[in-house]
Design brief:
Distance between the termini: 31 Å
Structural class: alpha/beta
Number of helices: 7
CATH class of the largest domain: Alpha Beta
Number of strands: 15
Strand order of the largest sheet: 8-7-6-9-10-11
Number of domains: 2
């Protein structure tokens, strides 16, 4: 089991007579080995005792604290995937190609690196309501292939299903075989009671597709206490019909967890679109993710390939915010690239820390 530090996207360093870089690197060693509870903003974490990218930036070094000075500094990290207008990954960009804004104010990029191997924490959410009965088997096969291909050493994932209940099918594990078995354990809800009874079930009342509850629980109860890059892959038609939580609650939970939501939107040519496309678009756009329309098994496999490629081709931009207020408010982030054909997929904002 890997060490868990604290939330990844926003870093808060409390330096008391130690150099900043050393303070960051020591966090992983000091963190409880089994900690999986939600915590406040903290440094980019790493599996085992490997220092975080913030401790070893490839560009400007982080400032050093004097032996007698007490300093508290906040660093914001933004993970970004850049494609050209044809959809190809742009992997040759430099620090000078980027500009980053927070609430409309340009920020100075303090460090910059291209991340290919930083560990990833994933949540696979599978819609098992009745509307998925024709494609569930294909979803299971493609999702199983996805976790086997995308996961590397020190990556971890959870698998959840949702209908009238939200079920935890597999807790955090690095083993793709365990995840694959959990994915194939998902079953279509054939009656009002839902699957129920499995470990981690969260009972719900009414409705049949508790999408918002599933996203909220995945972020608040699982990803919120994890470190590093975090992504949720949701397979659904995005038609929520019974959640206690709202769409806004689900999005806020993802933003607080610094988790990107990718929606594989299952589309049925024989059915009306309803609210699904709009819901999926809002979830993805507000968290820096994407929506990929899925009409058949072939497009489902291609959708997973796109997500896999993006997870392994990200830039990390770090900056000290001009607005240093620790007011707990949401800050909007915009990343710009000095190429007219660039298409940016990145975190859209974060919640500032509090005293």
């Amino acid at each position: 089991m890997r060490l868990t530090t604290i939330v990844a996207g926003i870093i808060t360093l409390a330096l008391g007579g130690l150099p900043a870089a050393n303070a960051i690197a020591s966090r992983a060693a000091a963190a409880p080995a089994a900690a999986r509870q939600a915590a406040g903003p903290g440094p980019i974490g790493s599996r085992a005792d490997e220092p975080s990218p913030a401790a070893t930036p490839q560009a400007d070094s982080l400032p050093q604290a004097s032996q007698s000075l007490q300093v508290q500094t906040t660093v914001v990290n933004v993970f970004a995937t850049i494609r050209d207008k044809h959809g190809a990954i742009l992997g040759d960009l430099t620090k000078d190609d980027f500009k980053i804004y927070e609430d409309g104010v340009e920020q100075k990029v303090t460090y910059f690196t291209k991340e290919v191997n930083m560990p990833i924490t994933l949540a696979i959410l599978m819609d098992t309501s009745g509307s998925m009965y024709r494609i569930l088997s294909a979803e299971q096969d493609s999702a199983s292939r996805f976790v086997k291909e995308v996961m590397r050493k020190r990556d971890e994932a959870v698998v959840m299903s949702f209908d009238t209940d939200v079920n935890l099918l597999a807790d955090f594990t690095e083993d793709p075989a365990v995840l694959s078995r959990a994915i194939h354990h998902a079953e279509i809800n054939v009656d009002a009671s839902g699957i129920g009874g499995t470990a981690g079930t969260v009972a719900q009342k009414g409705g049949g597709t508790n999408l918002y509850d599933a996203v909220y629980l995945a972020c608040h109860d699982k990803l919120g206490g994890e470190a590093g890059r975090k992504a949720i892959v949701v397979l659904t038609d995005a038609e929520d019909t019974g959640s206690k939580m709202s769409l806004g609650d689900a999005i806020e939970a993802a933003q607080r967890a610094n988790a990107v939501i990718h929606v594989l939107l299952i589309r049925d040519f024989g059915a009306s679109d309803g609210s699904g496309p709009g819901v999926a678009s809002k979830m993805a756009s507000e968290t820096g993710g994407r929506v990929i329309n899925v009409h058949n098994e072939n497009s489902l496999e291609k959708a997973f390939d796109v997500i896999s490629e993006e997870l392994r081709a990200q830039y990390v931009l770090g900056y000290y915010p001009v607005n240093a207020a620790r007011d707990g408010r949401f800050r909007r982030i915009k990343v710009e690239v000095a190429r007219s054909d660039a298409r940016v997929l990145a975190l859209k904002g974060y919640y500032a820390s509090t005293p």
